[in-house]
Design a protein that fits this description.
With 620 residues, this protein is of the alpha/beta class. It has 20 helices and ten strands. Strand 4 and strand 5 form a beta hairpin. Helix 5 packs antiparallel against helix 10, helix 9 packs antiparallel against helix 10 and helix 14 packs across helix 16. The structure holds adenosine-5'-triphosphate.
Amino acid sequence: MPKNKLKYSIKTLKIGLMEVHKLQSWIVPITIFDSVFKSIAPFINIYMVGKIIDRLLKTKDINNIIFLIGLTIGLNFIIHLISNGLEHLHTILKDIMIQNQDMKINEKIINMDYEHIENPKTHTLRTKISEAENMNGGGIIAFVRYLGELVKGLATVIISIIIGAGLFKLDMTGVGYLNFINNRIFSYGFLVLVLLGTIFNLHLKTISDKKLFKHFSEIMSANRILAFYYERIQDYNAGKEIRLYNQRKIFNEEVGGFIQSLKGLFKKIESMNTKYSGIDAFISSLLGGMVYIFVGLKAISGSISAGSIVQYTGSINQFMAGSTEILTSINNIINNNQYLQLYIDFLNIEGEKYKGTIPVEKRDDNEYEIEFRNVSFKYPGTDEYVLKNVSVKLNIGERLAIVGMNGSGKTTFIKLLCRLYDPDEGEILLNGIDIKKYDYEEYMGLFSIVFQDFKLFSFSLGQNIAAAVDYDEKFVEKVIEDVGFIDRLETMPRGISTPLYKDFDKDGVEISGGEAQKIALARALYKDSPIIILDEPTAALDPIAEFEIYSKFNEIVGTKTAFYISHRLSSCRFCDEIAVFHEGSIIQRGDHEDLLKDEDGKYYELWYSQAQYYNEGETA
Ligand SMILES: Nc1ncnc2c1ncn2[C@@H]1O[C@H](COP(=O)(O)OP(=O)(O)OP(=O)(O)O)[C@@H](O)[C@H]1O
C-alpha cells in the first residue's frame, strides 16, 4: 500500500465504484435502497410501541389503540415487503454482476498477450483474486456488501438521532428533586459519556478487526498451500507418482504441518475474539444500563412519558449499533481495498504487443519467405538470453528441421516466429517485412502449429480438429485419414461427433497420448495454413504410426513451408536443411550428409549417440 493511505483508499474506492457500475449499473442504487429500508424497520417498532404504551396509559379508547396496533403491523408489513423485494432484486443483480465479472476476467485472459499468460505473476494474481473471493470473502462482491452495510449504519445513526434527540431537550416541568436530570451540564455530560463509551468500543473494534485481518491473511496464505496439496492429491494424473514414489509420507508431513499452523491461528483468533467481545459486552452493558437509568429517571421526573422510554432507549441502542456498523464497514472497505486492487491490477494488464496493420499478402503459390535476422531474446523477468543472435532464412516451400539438446531454445524460436513473444534484439521478417508490422490476426492465420504441450478440449472430435462449432465433415475425415486415425474413428460411438473425454458427456471417449497427438496433427492439417510448424509431432506415436506419418509427410506438407523440431534425428533427414541449436544459438546448418561430415560438430555427436541404440554405430 502506498504511503498516503487515505488518497490511495479514496482512489481505489472510486475505481471500485466505477467498476461495479460497469459490471451492473443498478446494483449500487438497489443496495442503497435495500440498506435504507432495512435500517428503517426496527424504528417502526421502537417508535410505535412507545406511542401505544402512552395511549394505553392515557386513554381507554380501545379503537384508537387497535388503530395504532394495526398501523404498526401494517407499516411493518409494508416495510418488510419492500425490503424483501429489494433483497430479492439485489440477489439477482448480484448474480448477474458475478457472471459479468467472470466473463470479463475470461475475456481478459483470452485477449491477453501470450507472454502474460505464461508469466507466473499473472497466475498468482488470478489465483489471489479467486482466493480473496472464495476464502476471504473479499473483492468486488464484498465491496458492494460493505457499501450496503455502511449505508445501513449511516441511515440507522441518522434515524436514531432524529427519534432520540427529544431526550436531550431541557424540560424543567418535572418533579423537583429529580430536576438535576434536566440540568444542562448533567444532560449533555451524559450524552458525552455515551458518545465516549461508544467511541471507546469502536476503537476496540478497530484494533480487533486489524488483528483479525492480519490473522486471516496468514490463514489465507496457509490455505493457498493446502489447496495446492489437496488439488495434487485429488488429481488422478498425480495418483501414479504418489503411489509409486511413496509420496504419501511427504504429503502427510507437509499437510500436517500446515494444518497444525492453521490450528494455532484459529486458537489465536478464538482467544482474541473472547477477549475483545468480553470487553465490548461489558462496556455495552454498562452503557445500556446507564441509558435505562437516565431514561427511566427522565420518565419518573415527568419530563418524558412512559412510552418514550421504549423510544429513547431503543434509539440510543440503535445509535450505538449503527455507529459500530459504520466503523466495521469502513474498516472492511479499507481492508478490502487490497483485494479490489488485485482485480484492478488484473484488468490493467496491458496488451503491450505492437499489432501492425499491413495485411498479409494472400498468395495461392504459398510463397512466404521467413528470415530471422540477428534475433536475441530473454523471457520477461529473466536475465539469461535464451536465444542469442540467431540468423536463419527459410526459402519458400523449404523444410527446416531444428534439432538440439533440451533447453537449447528450439521451442522459443518457434514462439517468436508465431509472435507469442517479440525479440529483444534483431528482427523477424516475412517476405522482407518485419512481422510486427503485419495485422496480427492475419499473420497468425499463416501458421498451423502442433506444440509439444498441445491441448485438446472436451468438445467433439470434429470440433477439436476444426477448432470451430460448424465444420467441413469431409475435410475433417480426410485429415483424420492422413494422420492414420481412421481405424480409431470407426470405433467411436458417434463418429466425428463423438465428444472427447467424459467431462460433459457419458459417451465421451478417453484417448491415449499417441491418439491425442494424431488429433492435434489433424487439427494443424485442417487449418491448412501456408506455414506448418511441428514441435515433436510424433513423440507419442508408436513406430508404425510414426513411419506412416513420415512416409506421407511430403504429401501432408505439400508446398507449405515447414518447421520441424525433433529429437529423433533420423526423422529429420527428409528436411532440406537442418539447424542445430546449442545454448540459444544456431551452431551448425546444412543437410544431413553435410552435417555428418563434421566429426567434431554437435550434429555428429547427437546423431551417433542416438544411432548406436538402433544399429550399434552402423549408421548414416
Ligand atoms: N516461459 C518461460 N519463462 C522463462 N524461461 C523459459 C520459459 N520457457 C522456456 N524457458 C527457458 O528457456 C530455455 C529454452 O527453452 P525451450 O523450451 O525453447 O527449449 P527446447 O530446446 O525447446 O527444449 P526441449 O528440447 O526440452 O523441448 C530453457 O532453459 C527454459 O528453461
